[in-house]
Amino acid sequence: MHILVTNDDGVTAPGLLALVQEMRNVGQVSVLAPDHNWSASGHVKTMHRPLRVWETKLMDGTLALTSDGAPSDCVALALLGYLSDKVDLVVSGINPNANIGHDVTYSGTVTAAMEAVIGGVAGIAISLHSPENHKDELDYGPAARIAKRIVERLVSQGMNPQLLLNVNVPYLQDDQIKGILTTRQGLRVYRDRLDERLDPRGRPYYWIGGDAPTAVPDEGTDYGALSRGFVSITPLDLDLTDYRVLEVIGKQDW
Q1: Architecture, CATH, for domain 2-187+216-249
Q2: pTM
Q3: Residue ranges covered by each domain of the chain
Q4: What is the Cα–Cα distance from 34 to 78, expressed in whole angstroms?
Q5: What is the DSSP letter of 26?
């Protein structure tokens, strides 16, 4: 089992190291991750400039690969031949914040896993539901061990190359996590605000900011599970067709 580990927080992120160390207990691990933070980058494919890849070292002294491309670029590079050994699974993370509801369209963590499925390899995104305004160093250990548990189960059952999972882990210790639930996407509530400012020359510029997003803890949803202390596993599909609307508008005389 050859596992590619990537993320959207950059190759030096502690969440990636925790994930790599647990994935090494499952199989051969290669790391190809961005050289800087790409959070909220969405699904990027760089086609109008060259991409560069070079060796670096993780905090534990082991070798890794990094690139000036986006998370999804890193996955594409690996699957298209930069890595000589065939990749069997892509695991992306561990993101320091949850990716729930509509977040999946923004998240570089999730879209890296999407790129894996596009390339014919199963993809799993792992995110940690850390407390808002958490100041201390985050403990990624429980989330990394959950990722190992999920990957081991999937490997034992045979890997489906179309499998795309979005996993969110509550910020709890191992013995406090109540279990794992399969969920649907919930409703993310964004509270964005546009701030207009002036630069030193009097020209306007803009920041998209606002308060941290919240979510609706409906039963059966990703956030509903997290709010009750459960790990959320949401299977995703790259087919974005709304089949209910398709049936309705298909009856229209256009």
Answers
A1: 3-Layer(aba) Sandwich (3.40)
A2: 0.93
A3: 2-187+216-249
A4: 12
A5: T
Residue 185 near residue 101 (C-beta atoms within 8 A): yes
Question: What does pLDDT average to over the chain?
Answer: 95
- The conformation of residue 184, written as its DSSP 8-state character, comes to B
Which segments in the chain show pLDDT lower than 50? none
Query: Would you report the helix, strand and coil content of the chain in percent, each value rounded to 5?
Result: 30, 30, 40
- Longest CA–CA span in the chain (Å) reads 64
Q: How many residues would you count in the chain?
A: 254
Rounded to whole angstroms, the Cα distance separating 14 from 65 reads: 16
Question: How many other C-beta atoms lie within 10 A of the C-beta of residue 239?
Answer: 6
CA separation, residue 192 to residues 64, 78, 109, 209 (Å): 36, 35, 21, 6
Angle between helices 14-23 and 141-157 (to 10 degrees): 40
